[in-house]
Amino acid sequence: MTPTRYAFVKANWHAEIVDRALDGFLELIPADKVDVYDVPGAFELPLLARDLAATGRYGAVAAAAFVVDGGIYRHDFVAQAVVDGLMRAGLDTGVPVLSVSLTPHHYQETEHHRAIYSSHFVEKGREAARAALMITNTRAGLTRIAA
Prior knowledge:
Layout: E1 6-11, H1 15-28, E2 34-39, H2 45-54, E3 60-66, H3 75-93, E4 97-102, H4 111-146
Parallel strand pairs: 1-2, 1-3, 3-4
Helix pairs in contact: 1-4, 2-3
């Protein structure tokens, strides 16, 4: 039987923006079916996502982060490592791990950019919820077919 609980993991870096993804997610999936976890930053997402998926408690795990160019490291490398790690977590555990990890080409700490990306994260949260519901329903159907 496919579990009907979902995990949502979010990075605390740029939390005022990243947390909006959870808002969008909860518009479609009731909060009492979602366990929420925080990690320090994007780089920690794949490990916790894998650990949560491996519990067998969740039909899907969503992971959200905002990786921006801080001028110190190559943010595109970090973003690629995160997305690759999330995909591997899903493939290794057999539980869908969905990415709401975004890396904009241009981000500045302005009210205008915060508003744009906050709004975008709400929509991305909704998209992750739709994907979680769809894949959970599809996999439940496969289980019924195999029985």
